[in-house]
């Protein structure tokens, strides 16, 4: 049974904690927060042991009447691995100043840069490369989604060129600090965006072949990608079949009512998914087309949750608990109740 510590119980950290708690080969030994807010209280109510991420703030939890077991320093050496869920840039600082100091394996998230860890993880592409490694970066929600669809296409044809436009959600639903409220913002305004190079950090074979541009729009529900991939040769039927066979991809039909990201999220709600998470990415079947060997499709990414099962697989790879990536994927999916 692997001991997993979640350092940073926020949007990603709390979801990883719940996903780890559902597995039969790993357990959550603690979660950390810096602020004694309702999320800290709820972590304790759920049965997680709570620790102060910053030792000097431990008294704030005590003063707020939230039971805290100690500080990060008190628990870190009991961990076989730490999943860092701290905000962008703090993950890297934690890796350098805390995890390496204590000699504990760690996963940092997609807000950090590719060079900050030993490698970049995706369950389909780089499980073997990350096997037994000490410090790994779990790539962002967008990169994770793109890696899944590139895997599907690559399973039936060589990818010669990939061109992707990312339409990004402005903020997570709980975020009141970012926008826009009423605009479309090229972000970055320069092309390519960082997403292409990030995909290459997982799939080096795509170096020089993938270009991405990105805009931000006023929505909190999901990201969307418009994908154009020149291939060595394939058909629409082959791509539909490949999408159906690729783990953690759902194909949805507008003709069945999935006419927007809003309806996809409604589906996740109707499934009774915790926090309306859709860990699978959704590809619109009607959008899949092949013209002159060029594949076109549109997909939607639930930014807060597609990386969660990948974190579970990454733990198994880094702790050498399962050498076969497909077996880990299947085990994780089953425990989390993912659908195909
Ligand atoms: P978040 O919701 O802001 O949560 C961050 C958590 O880290 C909070 O629980 C915070 O605790 C805690 N924290 C703050 N300072 C810390 C420190 N020094 N040490 C340990 N924990 C600390 O952030 P998030 O959205 O989950 O993002 C976390 C990482 O995942 C980032 O790299 C992000 O780019 C990446 N990511 C995010 C998404 C997404 O859509 N949200 C998707 C994929 C990847 P307090 O609240 O108590 O201060």
From TrEMBL:
Binding site for D-glyceraldehyde 3-phosphate: 140-142, 195-196
GO cellular component, one term: cytoplasm
PROSITE patterns: GAPDH
Catalytic activity: D-glyceraldehyde 3-phosphate + phosphate + NAD(+) = (2R)-3-phospho-glyceroyl phosphate + NADH + H(+); D-glyceraldehyde 3-phosphate + phosphate + NADP(+) = (2R)-3-phospho-glyceroyl phosphate + NADPH + H(+)
Glyceraldehyde 3-phosphate dehydrogenase NAD(P) binding domain location: 2-141
Keyword NAD (UniProt): yes
Major location (coarse): cytoplasm
Keywords assigned by UniProt, alphabetized: Cytoplasm, Glycolysis, NAD, NADP, Oxidoreductase
GO molecular function: 4-hydroxy-tetrahydrodipicolinate reductase; glyceraldehyde-3-phosphate dehydrogenase (NAD+) (phosphorylating) activity; NAD binding; NADP binding
Binding of NAD(+), residues: 11-12, 111, 169, 303
GO biological process: glycolytic process; lysine biosynthetic process via diaminopimelate
Family: Belongs to the glyceraldehyde-3-phosphate dehydrogenase family.
Name this protein carries in UniProt: Glyceraldehyde-3-phosphate dehydrogenase
Protein source organism: Methanococcus maripaludis
């Amino acid at each position: 049974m692997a001991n997993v510590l979640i350092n940073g119980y926020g949007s990603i950290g709390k979801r990883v904690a719940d996903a780890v708690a559902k597995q039969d080969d790993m357990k959550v030994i603690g979660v950390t927060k810096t602020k004694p807010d309702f999320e800290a209280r709820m972590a304790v109510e759920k049965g997680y042991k709570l620790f102060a991420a910053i030792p000097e703030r431990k008294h704030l939890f005590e003063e707020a009447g939230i039971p805290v077991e100690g500080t990060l320093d008190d628990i870190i050496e009991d961990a076989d691995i730490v999943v860092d869920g701290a905000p962008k840039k703090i993950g890297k600082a934690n890796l350098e100043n805390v995890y390496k100091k204590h000699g504990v394996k760690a996963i940092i998230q997609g807000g950090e840069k590719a060079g900050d860890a030993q490698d970049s993880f995706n369950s389909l592409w780089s499980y073997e490369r990350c096997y037994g490694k000490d410090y790994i970066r779990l790539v962002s929600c967008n990169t994770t989604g793109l890696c899944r669809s590139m895997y599907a296409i690559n399973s039936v044809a060589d990818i010669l060129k990939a061109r992707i436009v990312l339409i990004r959600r402005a903020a997570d639903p709980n975020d009141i600090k970012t926008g826009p409220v009423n605009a479309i913002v090229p972000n970055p305004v320069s092309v390519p965006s960082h997403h292409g190079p990030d995909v290459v950090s997982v799939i080096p074979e795509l170096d020089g072949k993938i270009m991405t541009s990105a805009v931000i729009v006023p929505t909190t529900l999901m990201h969307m990608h418009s994908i154009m991939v020149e291939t060595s040769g394939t058909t629409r039927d082959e791509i539909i079949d490949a999408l159906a066979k690729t783990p953690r991809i759902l194909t949805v039909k507008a003709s069945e009512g999935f006419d927007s990201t809003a309806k996809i999220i409604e589906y996740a709600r109707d499934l009774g998914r915790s926090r309306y998470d859709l860990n699978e990415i959704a590809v619109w079947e009607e959008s899949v087309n092949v013209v002159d060997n060029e594949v076109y499709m549109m997909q939607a990414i639930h930014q807060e949750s597609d990386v969660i099962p990948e974190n579970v697989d990454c733990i198994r790879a880094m702790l050498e608990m399962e050498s076969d990536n497909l077996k880990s994927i299947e085990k994780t999916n089953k425990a989390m109740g993912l659908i195909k």
